[in-house]
Amino acid sequence: MNDYVIHTEALSLSYRGKQALDNLSLRLARGGVHAIVGANGAGKSTLFRVLLGFACADSGSAAVLGCDSRALGPALRARIGFVNEEHTLPTWMRVEELAAMQRRLYPGWSQERYRQVLVNFNVADRQKIAELSRGERAGVSLALALAQGPELLILDEPTLGLDVVAKRAFLDALLQTSLDDGATVVYCSHQMEEIERVADNLVIMERGVLRHMSPPGEFCERVALWIADFPFRQPSSADLSAHLPGVLEMRVIDGLTHLVVFDGGEDFGARLRLMGARSCQSMPVSLDRAVNGFLARGHAGASPLSAAA
Ligand SMILES: Nc1ncnc2c1ncn2[C@@H]1O[C@H](COP(=O)(O)OP(=O)(O)OP(=O)(O)O)[C@@H](O)[C@H]1O
Q1: Max alpha carbon distance in the chain (Å)?
Q2: Rounded CA gap, 241 and 245, in Å?
Q3: What is the pTM of this model?
Q4: How far is CA 139 from the centre of its chain?
Q5: What number does the ligand 1 atom closest to the CA of 39 have?
Q6: CATH number of 4-215
Q7: Which of 65, 68, 56, 125 is nearest to 95 (CA)?
Q8: Of 69, 70, 104, 223, whose Cβ has the fewest other Cβ atoms within 10 Å?
Q9: What is the pLDDT tens value at each position of the chain, 309 positions in all?
């Protein structure tokens, strides 16, 4: 018996020949906030669909809270909160009717949590869902999901389209749900500053494959920006690839070579000097730059050093 809230083994799914999940083996431990990132089309939403039993994999296995995703019954579904990026809700219902219905359905319902999230949106209880703006609808669906008191919360780009204040309030409530109620949160997002703030675990997917998993800080520590001054001959992208390990991205700015490097090793500076650098220095990068550099390397249409001058 393991304690993974999500466990996939060699999970594959292709849509008419297009590989969305490619032999994906992923184990997410119980507790904390897990953020899944990846370029557009990396397979994040597809993974969620398979996990929740909305789509069938071609091969491999997927389990949520220890149960095969193909056999999730009502009792198990009640332990999982899910918010999709469209924030699908019954448009004909009034906000108060929807909240009352959910309160009856979920024994762990927290009215306080519901109000805590919803207060940041200008939503009147008597309004119909159809009358709400997109952001307000997102606010209602997020308030409902957090108030359900789920054991596992799966969120597909939950803050897309929210303004800064609403986003912050939602993230605070999310953290509190995870800390106070012990809920495990699994969510995908393209917003790194948000992930930096809330995530305990960073999962990077690329074209249906798991590329990296660690705490965000650990990932950042493995990526560095090197700035080197080559006074005579600027090395080409090909030179760099051949002689330096882990170069993700190269740019020449004001005559200085900027390299984003993953696992460059202790002697990276010495290697730069051997290639003719007069001086060089390394500095840390933000999560945004680290992840984007990492993903740019394998991005469709981009060569490994696509940003090279
Ligand atoms: N119903 C479908 N029919 C055909 N192809 C699909 C379908 N759904 C997804 N795909 C393809 O599967 C791949 C993975 O899509 P998915 O929506 O899972 O990516 P994603 O990581 O969630 O992307 P984004 O960040 O853009 O939301 C993409 O190449 C997409 O074009």
Answers
A1: 74
A2: 7
A3: 0.89
A4: 19
A5: 25
A6: 3.40.50.300
A7: 125
A8: 104
A9: 468 999 999 999 999 889 999 999 999 999 999 999 998 999 999 999 999 999 999 999 999 999 999 999 888 888 898 888 777 888 999 999 999 999 998 888 899 989 988 888 889 999 999 999 888 888 898 899 989 889 999 999 888 878 888 888 888 888 888 878 788 999 999 889 889 888 999 999 999 999 999 999 999 999 999 999 998 888 887 788 788 888 988 888 998 999 999 998 888 999 999 999 999 999 999 999 999 988 887 544 444 443 332
CATH 3.30.70 corresponds to the domain 222-296: yes
Q: Whose CA is nearest to atom 4 of ligand 1?
A: 15
Q: CA 228, CA 195: separation in Å to the nearest integer?
A: 30
- Ligand 1 close to Cβ of residue 45 (< 6 A): yes
What's the gap in Å between 38 CA and the centre of ligand 1? 12
Judge if the beta carbon of residue 38 lies within 6 A of ligand 1. yes
4-215 and 222-296: same fold?
no
Residue 309 gets which letter from DSSP? Answer: -
